[in-house]
Amino acid sequence: MDANDIDLLRAYCRDGDHAAFARLVGRHGDWIRAAARRRLGDDHLADDATQAVFVVLLDKAQRLLESDRASLSPWLFHVVHFTCARLRRSHAREKDLRRWAEPEPSPGADQVLGEGGQLLLLMEDCIAELPPLDRDVVVRRFYRHQSFPVIGRATGTSAEAARKRLGRAVATIKSLMVSKGGDAIPDELLAVPRRGARSTRSATVSAAQTDAIHLAHQGEAAMTQQQQQPSAGGYTLISVEFLVRDVETNLEFFEKLGFPRRWLDKPDPDGRLPRASLTAGAMGKIWVRRAADGEIHPSSSINPFFWVDGGPDALVAHRKKIADQGVAVTPIIDEHALPNFSVTTPDGYAICFFTQYV
Description:
Blueprint: H1 5-15, H2 18-40, H3 43-59, H4 61-65, H5 73-98, H6 109-127, H7 132-143, H8 148-155, H9 159-179, H10 200-203, H11 205-226, E1 239-244, H12 247-256, E2 261-264, E3 275-279, E4 285-290, E5 305-307, H13 311-323, E6 333-335, E7 338-344, E8 350-354
Parallel strand pairs: 1-4, 5-8
Antiparallel strand pairs: 2-3, 3-4, 6-7, 7-8
């Protein structure tokens, strides 16, 4: 019998079996990249998203190994769904900054996608809201292109049971789409592509990116080992810097959010801190640097995003902890099946804390 996803992940993490990890990438890399390409409309961004998804997989491997799941498909779908949403926002902000230098900017992902593509994005938002078992069947059938007998064996049921579960899941997707203002989903969006329809680029992604994924994860692990203070919850961010009027005020604010101080610069002749940092989760940090008013430009959108482990209950508890310290917090909203809330720093930067349904 072919090893399931968790067996392969265990073989890599506990036994150092790189071939097992390569099989995982080969098993899931193509459909992840294809989904990312649809959402982002750019090959390079899709490559970045694919690599990021597998780095998150390695980072969360121990928790996944302790779970009772055999398939990673529904979990990976959620990760690629969020990763693409974050990349789209980040890419949009970068385009805004470059637009003044580009009289005729190239069309963005939304323009490339067109009306049918936008409908597909809505469909994938709805897939993300499905229960894990239903999401697994949908991903296996429409993303991994598996037959019903294969899906039945993988999920411990019969081919007919898998077919019925898929039918119920598709009906739920259609209902969700209509409730969100979309028309009934066109059948062709959920049609299984013909065999051999994958592009050469997509088919070669797995082998090309496996080494890069290892290197990226090793780099993050090295950064984790260098942290001298305990991490703050489950937040994951490599580095972000805020230009601020007063470093001390911002240090106090970020400590209320759950980020402990990490490093302080020497005070200047006036006794004020020029720069400082705080620990941001297992492998990152937040920098705050004093700057002139003209250098401080808060974005009109969210700046950094911080992941909170533990699902909605943990997010609610974290929001309450912050609010109890006098920090203004927004209500929790559900955006693309990702519950989140925001806070605003003393200098007007917006920060989002989010999680996923578990």
